[in-house]
């Protein structure tokens, strides 16, 4: 975790993320990139070049001043922090910044959404999770510890999930975590016990070259995958939920949804997403 990006909107949730990132950076002799995306209005963009430039500079200066105040935290002492201000509130741009700086992790604070707001708007966190090729750690509360020792990794055990499972397991185990797997059986895609175990066994044999992970895999039944994952995470006292995301966008996302985004949006526990 040498480079950690924290999108900042100056809320208490982004402060939760900033403090967690600071701790992780200290532990790994790393750097925190504090990212604020400045949304310039159409009024600014459609002005003449001189006026546009003058007003843009004004807002940039305001953002820089607010950054200085927001980053004046004791927990940032002895942490290498680089403020970055970008134009426009385009959430795919967080992924661009992550790739540009070769970041290891994005840490985001999230209030989450529900009901109609979730259907028609979604949360900023969901949008970052959807676009990011870099793992995203989503926090809803101030972390007591960044030492994630008991992690539940949720996957559909499909062949296309094998590579990301291997990468995620390597990263999580490198953080000192014990990784547990869970298969959620739902009414819409029901398998009997033998079929479930065979699917997981085939997955592990292909991913690890053995089936030793069967002993750390739980088989649960629930009405939805999201409910099964979150309920099981609580039952094993997990301190982190890790999930693979397909990063659906556009109309496919609207009609099909994304289990990973829903988990990240609704979980009280920290969630780390890995894009397939």
UniProtKB/TrEMBL annotation:
Pfam families: Usp. It comes from the Bacteria. Residues 1-140, 148-274 form the UspA domain. InterPro entries: Rossmann-like_a/b/a_fold (IPR014729), Universal_stress_UspA (IPR006015), UspA (IPR006016). Gene3D superfamilies: HUPs (3.40.50.620). PANTHER family: STRESS RESPONSE PROTEIN NHAX (PTHR46268), UNIVERSAL STRESS PROTEIN UP12 (PTHR46268:SF6). Belongs to the universal stress protein A family. This is Universal stress protein. It comes from Mangrovimonas spongiae. The lineage of its organism: Bacteria, Pseudomonadati, Bacteroidota, Flavobacteriia, Flavobacteriales.
């Amino acid at each position: 975790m040498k480079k950690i990006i924290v999108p900042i909107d100056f809320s208490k949730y982004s402060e939760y993320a900033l403090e967690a990132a600071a701790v992780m950076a200290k532990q790994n002799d790393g750097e925190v990139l504090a990212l604020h995306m400045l949304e310039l209005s159409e009024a600014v963009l459609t002005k003449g070049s001189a006026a546009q430039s003058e007003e843009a500079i004004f807002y940039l200066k305001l953002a820089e001043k607010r950054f200085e105040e927001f980053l004046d935290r004791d927990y940032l002492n002895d942490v290498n922090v680089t403020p970055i201000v970008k134009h426009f509130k385009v959430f795919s741009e967080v992924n661009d910044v992550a790739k540009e700086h070769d970041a290891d992790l994005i840490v985001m604070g999230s209030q989450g959404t529900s009901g109609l707001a979730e259907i028609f708007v979604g949360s900023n966190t969901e949008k970052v999770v959807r676009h990011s090729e870099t793992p995203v750690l989503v926090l809803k509360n101030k972390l007591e510890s960044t030492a994630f020792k008991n992690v539940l990794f949720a996957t559909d055990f499909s062949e296309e999930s094998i590579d990301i499972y291997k990468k995620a397991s390597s990263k999580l185990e490198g953080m000192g975590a014990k990784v547990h797997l869970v298969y959620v059986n739902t009414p819409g895609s029901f398998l009997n016990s033998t079929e479930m175990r065979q699917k997981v066994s085939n997955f592990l044999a292909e991913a690890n070259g053995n089936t030793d992970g069967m002993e750390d895999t739980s088989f649960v039944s629930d009405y939805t995958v999201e409910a099964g994952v979150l309920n099981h995470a609580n039952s094993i006292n997990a301190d982190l939920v890790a999930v693979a995301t397909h990063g659906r966008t556009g109309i496919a996302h609207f009609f099909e949804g994304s289990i990973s985004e829903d988990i990240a949006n609704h979980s009280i526990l920290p969630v780390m997403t890995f894009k397939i």
